[in-house]
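Hey all, quick one. A colleague (J.T.) asked me to put the zinc ion job into the tracker so the inputs and the structure tokens live in one place instead of scattered across chat threads. No bug as far as I know, just bookkeeping. Sequence used:
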Amino acid sequence: MNVLKNQLITAITLPTPFPVGDVNVYLVKGEALTLVDAGPKTEQAWELFKQKLKKIGYTPNDIEQVVITHHHPDHVGLLDFFPHELPVYGHSYNRPWLIQEKAFFEKQKQFISQLFTLLGVDSQHLKLLGEIDHLYTFSCQRVLSAPLKEGDEICGLSGWNVIETPGHAQSHIVLYNPKTCEVMGGDHLLKKISSNPLLEPPMEGDERPKPQLQYNESLKKLLQFPISVVYTGHGEPVYDAHKLIEHRLNRQHERAMNVLSLLNEKAMTAFDICRRLFPTAYERELMLTMSETVGQLDYLEDSHLITFQDENGVRLYRRM
Ligand SMILES: [Zn+2]
């Protein structure tokens, strides 16, 4: 836990049961004592959270509101330990994930299994997707008190504005303070690892979002703002945000070029490519590795470097 350059913001680091490791949540002293993000729903995270709060003179009951950057369990699960009356704000796309809406989860499963079948994942490997439900045991069941959207100033936290940054999650926002040029960044920009733009069903309409393309746009969007620091969801703060954004965009382009070179040999399905890129990890992390692969293919298609054809219900990608 450390008090950051800005004395009004305290970072609290909590353990998660996920491969990403610890998550950072932030206590911000505005007109309302605000928590930005919560940890995962584990007793261990809750006990540590209370201990760390106590050291700086607070209890969970002192927290007056919570703002969430996105719906992932390591950022919202702990909300279940807080009183139900505590106001929670976030993008409206958090809603079905936060209330764990059965119909939405079914839609998500169906969407992924149809998409993955089209992308060449066989039925044996589709079974690996059971993991999605498991993840949500670490999440919460909450209703949003009010939705946040682009340009909103957070009530009780004046000076902080919402910037929508879809990509890593459709629900993702960051908070920006134009006076101090600070960003509460969630998982949008991390110092040590590149954020994974995850496949999700469309929140509106029928067309699948292309999270890698959205993510790149959301990164470029931040280049328009002067940034002194990004307080990140995992790991240390980022002080050279613009430089890191350029680096992330370049690295992504290089990864896409690597995928393009695989297609020199022959036309392939996304799943073929996924197994070439992640020969062992794909079995453990099918969702993450397929999201990464599809991200590169969407990027190459958008750059008019590849095309695809559906044959017998399976999509084959080839170079243009
Ligand atoms: Zn996340």
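Adding what we noticed when we looked at it: The mean pLDDT is 94. The pocket of zinc ion is lined by residues 70, 72, 168-169, 187 (CB under 6 Å).
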